[in-house]
Amino acid sequence: MTILRIYRSEGNYDIHHLDIKPETKLLTLFEQIRTKIDSSFAFSSECRRGICGSCAVKVNGIPVLACKAEIGSFRSGVLRIEPLNSAAPKIDLLSDFEPFFRSFSRFPEFPPPDGGLTRHCEPSDALRCTQCGICFYSCPSVASDDGFAGPAAIVKAERFLSDPADRLTRPQLEAAAENVYQCVKCFRCEEYCPRGLKPEHSVEAVRRRCLTLPEDSLGTIHTKALFDSIFHYGKINEVFTARYIFGFCGSLPLILSGIPFLLKRRVRIRPVFSKNIREIRQLLEADE
Amino acid sequence: MTVCDVLVIGGGLAGLLAATTAAESGRKTVAVSKNHPLRSHSTAAAGGINAALTEEDTVLHIEETVAAGCGLCDRKAVELLCREAAAVVNRFLRNGTPFQWNEERNEPEGRPFGAMSAPRTRFVGDRTGAALMQTAFDQAERAGVRFEYSVFLIDLIKDGSRIAGAYGIRTETGAVEVFWAGAVILAAGGAGALFDVTSNGIGSTGDGAAMALRAGVPLRDWELIQFHPTGLYPSGFLISEAARGEGAVLRNKDMEAFMSRCHEKGDLAPRDAVTRAIVTELKCGRGFGKRGDFVLLDCRNIPSERLSARLPELCDLTETALHIHPSTHLIPVIPTAHYFMGGVACDLDGRALDGIGFPVPGLYAAGECACTGVHGANRVGGNSLLETVVFGARAGTTAAAECTGSKALSPPPEATAAEAAASLNERLTPFLNTGETGRRPAETPLDCRRELKEIMSAYCGTTHTTVRHKQGAAKLALLNRRFARCRLKTDPGRPYNTELKDFLETENLLFLAEALFSAAEERSESIGAFCREDQLYAGATPYHTATEWRKGRFLTERRPL
Amino acid sequence: METVVFFPGCMPVSIARHQYRAERKLLKKLDIPFTECPEFSCCGGGHLQDADEMKFFALNARNLVYAERNGRLLITGCSTCYQNLVRTAEALKDETLRGQINRRLNAAGLDDYRGVIEIRHILNFLASSEIFSLLENLVVRRKKQNMMPFYGCHIKRPSALLPENPDGSLEKLLTLCGVFVRPMRDPYVCCGFHGQITSPKTSASLTDAILSEAAEQQCGAVVTVCPLCAFNIESRSLQNGRANRPQIIPVEEVLLKSMK
Question: What is the rounded CA–CA span in Å between residue B388 and residue B16?
């Protein structure tokens, strides 16, 4: 016996007790409810086979595609089913997707700058993205409304990086540079992506490209600071990185904020060096 | 009310191309769809887009397309289609579509496809449709197309004899929306959802075709429906022809690769031939399973790296649906309703034609809901994406050139909006929940839809006979009466009212089903994808059918080519 | 018992020495022989791959080479180190990539990375049945306090990469110590550490959510399994200057304090 608690409106859940085979897909269940129990029950679906991305919902807080998720794959016998975008006004399992699609369009495909037909990018995994919005609506940086374009958009932007015609144009790359450092590397997008894409790898790739920009941004300085710290000490040295990023005076508040930790006898003042640091430096210098 | 120059109905590939070209010509263009373009059925197109890159190959492409069309093709349209293909692929390439590349020839890689002698299907894995859609969508946005992607359009609006717009319901608010335009391009796709076993999404309900019929525009060759040979058993989800293009083989109960016996091109025969062969195998008791109702697709001879690189969607589908991997297991397949060759008849520039071959003022059509004559009685795999792109763009250009700009439009009658709301109201009133339940509990639209699908698959599916048409039409009439007893549970003005959408879609499907029976009965011989068991051979002269909704009933007439 | 290679990570040796001391003491009390290589470097801190992925692999492969010299099992108390080391080990299962990285290592005078070392997070290690039975004998004092177990992200995500599922292990250890476990709504929420500098708004909102949940649950302490989470949450709570600040305690310290 499986118990379903399905969101209908604020604070109002429908409860269904159903005997279901564990291999039943969640979407089949929704369809049965709509046909047999309540014709007004609203959810969206289109292809029913996992390529259109219409039917993403949250089950016990975890986003899934209803057409791919099997009832038996959830460990709990009670399934709390809610719309994906819990922040927007919503009815049943539907909510406004506009923010996601708007963000997805932030890095559009462009003809190469020289206008000519050159070689093109490799067919990459990025095209397997179905725009289901799962990564977008589980991303904390998107939720905190920091202007982050979201994982799917970054995956799309990364696709242009591998293009010999350099389709990620300078303005786009600059836009990306502002954006891609908003990621806090929580790996939720990668965890939940129903297509097994790796948005965090895309974030890394775009960040690597950002280092080629002539102007530094806070993000690129941060990356360089950590790199240099590892180069010098073999470790991340907090004082070194703070000074690198914010300058001597700018870093003072940050360094002083460590005093309570110092008082708790948690801080070693003399910097720690890795032994055989020469090897580390050689590895970090090596370019093949 | 929205006033624009060009109104595009549908957000699939044909709609996007039409909207882009119209907007690029400086016309204020609005594209209306019931779902986001990136969710449209075009994204499900898998195998690829045909494009011959040399003159020699182009000629071959034309000949093979015409041959597969069984004499119903419009040769001029086919020539146009094939000759523009290379330019189309190059445009997509330049704009960013990452076609699989052939390093040696320094051109997009071609993959062998059904009914073709040369590998000319250009592809992006088995997600070609999605890749093209992404490029096309970005182009359309850049061209300044305004997207209204959650409006369910109900009917066209006429201004005298001119088609002057459309009205529908905005999903998020439930409010009635009117679009008033100088030109209307129909690109609303096919009606695969008529069938039980279909490769189409549940949204392919032929809303555009139904709208056209209700506005008095006839449908040409509506009965010509392609059944794709390889749909996953039992759902009918599409398994791309690319699988056979890469080397997969169909097998029957005795593990015989029966296509080599049935057709000289073997597994890459035209789709109608493969489907007929499978139907025959099943009829002769050589099917698999307890009921012998499917055959098997054997992909084991494709190296597994190639499988996962070139057919990732196939692997994903079999994994999700059956928990098997194509490199180790055989895949159960059945023919599945796939594509409507027929639709709103158009000329080469996308103008919709009326029953006697004159353009309908203000109306254009493109894509699956149009019938340009390039597919004839049987479509070649990989030609549909090509058609949407080539003829979508042409329709956009024509509409932009011919439309009376919105500034020149006579100020839209203020009454239009109220009229639209009133006519919707009139249509819905009988179905509103008035509290009385009658003797039996009222049915839901979805019950009716499920039954309709069963009727269509059984009586108007892969094979036809007059007897079955009669039985089917009778059942459909009964179902129509039951549908009339359906009651909406919710207020039609409710936001996100999917019940109302279900209801209107089902109404469209029932309407189109009736048209289908009428058209199918008129076609008295087998031709291409249309297979009559009571008359196997094509007549001497091929003809089109034209199905029209006149005075409350359907009328189908034959028309010479 | 075989010698275990202990990989402390950067932060415990520099500004979270209480965790470092606790980890070492705990291993001693458990009578587990361990070595710690002074050659160990940073794992890249989750950001070296943003500069150069090959160098990131090379640096971690170097760490793994030193670990392989000294044992067959590496344990680390830092979730980010854990994730990065596992990621390197998984990526280097690819022969070509391993060849390239080994060439770099050899050029720097190091041995080949062989790919035989097993990498575990100290939490999973402690909660595994073998070690847990040792702990059961050692833990005597019962801490009667409300505590909120917090896992953070890199110990679990991406679960397709990481070999062990930590679900419930923190609760198991805390219950052993007699702690009243107050479960979080989502104990795998991100603490925001990696966005502290570049995405301060997100980072702060994430950390504040954790702190306010602790306050809501009336927890005197949040138990962490990663020094980065601990540092981030604690410095944020100091910054906020709340009167009833929760203590942020590494799980190793909770265990240690419950022993004789």
Answer: 9
